[in-house]
Write a structure and sequence with these properties.
Length: about 230
Amino acid sequence: AISDGESAAWISGYLNLYGARFDADTAAPVANARYLELYNTLMGKPRIDVMAFLSAGWIVADRKLDKPMQLVAHTRRVAVYRNPLALPMATFWAHAIETKTDNEAFHALMQLPEGGLRVTPHANAELANAPHTIVPARIDELGLSHVRVTVDAPHDGIVVLGQQDARGWRVAVDGTPREKLIAHGVFRAVAVSAGHHEIVWTYHPRSFFYGALMTIITLVSLQVRVFVKRAR
C-alpha cells in the first residue's frame, strides 16, 4: 500500500495499456527518440486522440482529465481513467499516405484524426484515396523480440503495431520477408493485401550477430588448438 503523499512521486502520467503489453514508457527493447518525444509531450499536454496510437486504454493520473476520458476510480490525489478512443495494439488501416521522411510523418501525428495514417518509406498511392477503415488485428504472441499477429484485411492496406521501431526489427508476412514500414515515424508497420495473413516481427540487433560471430570464432579457435595439440 502506498499513501497519497508517496503516490504523487511516481503515479503522474503512468499509462497502463491494453492486451498484455508493457506500459507506454517501456514499449520496446530499446528507446526510439521520436517515441520518447511523443511520450514526454503527451505527459505535459495530454492529447486523447494521439494517445489512442499508444493503445493507452487505462490512464492513471494525478490530475483531472477532460472528456471523453471516463473516470472509473479515484482517491484524493490519484484517479484512474478509461480512454474510450484507445486503439488495439495491432490494427489494419485501409487509408494511408506515403510521407517523405520519418520526421515529417511524426509531426503529422499531432494533426490527427484529420491527417490520417502517415507511412514511410513507401505506400501504395491508391491507399491515399481509400476509405478511413480501421480494423482490429489479433496478437497471438507477444514478447520482447518476437510478435505474431493475424489479420483479416477487408482491403489492401497497412497493418500497424503500436510498438516503437528499432533497426533490429524485421517483418515477414505469411512466411515471406517484407519491407519494413514505419507509421508516423515511430510505430512498426507492414503492407498487406486483402485477405487473411499471419505477420511476424522479430528483433535481431547487430550486437546479436556480432556476439554469435565471436562465439563461432572462439569455438573454432579452441577446436584448432585441440587438433594441433593432438597432432603434436
